């Protein structure tokens, strides 16, 4: 099982983004995480390599078209050289036929590989933090158990196709041209089943409902794609199965919001704590209680950062940070004694205690004086 992130998501652009938008987003992200600006940071170096690979593919129209249709599978096993400095097609006829059909010929091939499947899985932020073993149920075409995927009744066999002579292709004269097409009798396999299996009717596969266990690693995020090799649909007549792709979606958390590996939350504090300083305790997703030191005189909107208290780094080491935004709460239910103390405090105010408000009203007074002169 392998895991990768969509190239468009890496570059933070829509799938319809034009060349200029791609370039602008790539330059911005590359500048942010370039190794020279983040010396010694393995995370930044890995992200720089990933976005460079994504941009190398999407800036090239041919590579982008192949990626849009096949995903990263277009560049595996000798395909187009995504991220490798522009290596060409590993097998040009494969891609050419996938876009234009068989009309221009091509080598004989066996049964087509089974289709890939997609499954959307929603998990909580806590599950994304710790990882989990998930069981998913899918309806999938699986290899027929009666004929073991061959499509032939047990004990019977296959014979060479009489129409194409076992080549899988037939030729026809059209004016000055000779056009080669897939054989309509054997569908390109070169063989014909003499006695088709009664269960799968010669297809070699039947529809089944399967439950599959999948490991969700710690640190996954919205849009993360997990590939489970060989768990897609079985190919016809014993061909290889496709892959299963699981796309992760995050449910909303009651307290925390997430941006990459950083966790954000808002913490209301009393105006006395804001004035005199103190500490607040935030329970983290790791089960620990994180003590946040509040400096005296803090203002609403100020953010306090707790290093290493955020989300795990996906397929890496370490954790991000927790950022707590302070909201100073004005008291609404005061006792008579508390009101008396506040009045005493107000009588001792000089304006130096709240320089921002004093400065603001000084500016307003200056504007008024200008208008009335």
UniProtKB/TrEMBL annotation:
The keyword rRNA-binding does not apply. GO terms for molecular function: ATP binding; heat shock protein binding; unfolded protein binding; zinc ion binding. It comes from the Bacteria. Zn(2+) 1 binds at residues 144, 147, 197, 200. InterPro entries: DnaJ, DnaJ_C, DnaJ_domain, DnaJ_domain_CS, HSP40/DnaJ_pept-bd, HSP_DnaJ_Cys-rich_dom, HSP_DnaJ_Cys-rich_dom_sf, J_dom_sf. Its cofactor is Zn(2+). A zinc finger (CR-type) spans 131-209. Residues 6-71 form the J domain. Keywords: Chaperone, Cytoplasm, DNA replication, Metal-binding, Repeat, Stress response, Zinc, Zinc-finger. HAMAP family: DnaJ. Belongs to the DnaJ family. Participates actively in the response to hyperosmotic and heat shock by preventing the aggregation of stress-denatured proteins and by disaggregating proteins, also in an autonomous, DnaK-independent fashion. Unfolded proteins bind initially to DnaJ; upon interaction with the DnaJ-bound protein, DnaK hydrolyzes its bound ATP, resulting in the formation of a stable complex. GrpE releases ADP from DnaK; ATP binding to DnaK triggers the release of the substrate protein, thus completing the reaction cycle. NCBIfam families: DnaJ_bact, PRK10767.1. This is Chaperone protein DnaJ.
């Amino acid at each position: 099982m392998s895991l990768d992130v969509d190239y468009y998501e890496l570059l933070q652009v829509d799938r319809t983004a034009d060349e200029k938008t791609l370039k602008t987003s790539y330059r911005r992200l590359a500048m942010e995480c370039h190794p020279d600006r983040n010396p010694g940071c393995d995370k930044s170096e890995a992200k720089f390599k990933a976005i460079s690979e994504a941009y190398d593919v999407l800036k090239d129209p041919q590579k982008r078209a192949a990626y849009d249709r096949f995903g990263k599978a277009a560049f595996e096993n000798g395909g187009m050289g995504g991220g490798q400095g522009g290596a060409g097609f590993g097998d040009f006829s494969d891609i050419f036929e996938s876009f234009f059909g068989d009309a221009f010929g091509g080598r004989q091939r066996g049964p087509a590989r089974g289709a890939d499947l997609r499954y959307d899985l929603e998990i909580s932020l806590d599950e994304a933090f710790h990882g989990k073993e998930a069981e998913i149920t899918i309806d999938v075409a699986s290899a027929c158990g009666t004929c073991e995927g061959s499509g032939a009744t047990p004990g019977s066999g296959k014979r060479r196709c009489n129409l194409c002579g076992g080549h899988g292709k037939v030729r026809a004269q059209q004016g000055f041209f000779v056009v080669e097409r897939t054989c309509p009798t054997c569908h390109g396999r070169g063989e014909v089943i003499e006695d088709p299996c009664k269960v799968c009717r010669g297809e070699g596969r039947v529809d089944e409902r399967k439950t599959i266990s999948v490991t969700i690693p710690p640190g996954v995020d919205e849009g993360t794609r997990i590939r489970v090799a060989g768990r897609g649909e079985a190919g016809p007549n014993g061909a290889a199965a496709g892959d299963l792709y699981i796309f992760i979606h995050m449910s909303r958390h009651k307290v925390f919001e997430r941006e990459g590996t950083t966790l954000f939350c808002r913490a209301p504090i009393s105006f006395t704590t804001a004035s005199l300083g103190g500490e607040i305790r935030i329970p983290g997703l790791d089960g620990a209680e994180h003590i946040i030191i509040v400096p005296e005189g803090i203002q609403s909107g100020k953010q306090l950062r707790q290093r290493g208290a955020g989300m795990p780094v996906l397929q890496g080491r370490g954790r991000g940070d927790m950022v707590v935004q302070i909201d100073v709460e004005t008291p609404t239910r005061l006792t008579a004694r508390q009101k008396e103390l506040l009045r005493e405090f107000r009588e001792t105010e000089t304006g130096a205690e709240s320089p921002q408000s004093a400065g603001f009203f000084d500016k307003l007074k200056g504007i008024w004086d200008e208008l009335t002169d």
